[in-house]
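Hi P.,

Sorry for the delay on this. The queue was packed all week, but I finally got your sequence through. Input first:
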Amino acid sequence: MGSLWRVFDAALAGRTALARLQGKIEGEAAAVASAAAGWALPRRNARVLTHSSSSIVLATLEHAGPSRIASVECTASLPGGEGRALAARLRRMGFAARAIHDAALARACAEANVVLVGADAITPASLINKTGTMPLALTARETGVPCYALSGSTKMVPAWIWNPQRAPAYDATPLEIFDAVVTERGPMRTAGLRRAAARITLDERLEAIAR
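Then the structure:
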């Protein structure tokens, strides 16, 4: 996760930097959820399609409440099946939610009016998330359904973090495929995301480990 690399970097910088980053991370999730619920979700009858299990997507749906959400479909997200656990948790919270097969993306996109996914990291070029995120984002674009990624800015990291050989359970989706990435600052488009991620530098000792 991008935020873990940021934590490692802050730890190398000292206690003050670590405490500052910790406070920022703790405040991000609620801010992203509030921004996404207010900006990305339809005001009523939202038919949400999501992938895997994102805590920020969950917080966004919770912030909006079941009265605004007509349905939530969660891809099973194999291997791992995290989407099944998310669907079960949402049902316990009062949402009409179900898990679907990963191969059912075309049908699910045709029935959804918004796609929401989380992020494990954001580089200047791509959003890193559980494998299957790119097919979902591409299908949403072809279907004409808005597709938004939700992420705090502490998940922004340099490009060298991403090594596909070491992370077979994740894929890298080009930023321009998403309609926007909603951060604690609100929606950000591709150019702004690239500039923001490109400004992030980490201790060179971490780069040596990653390579």
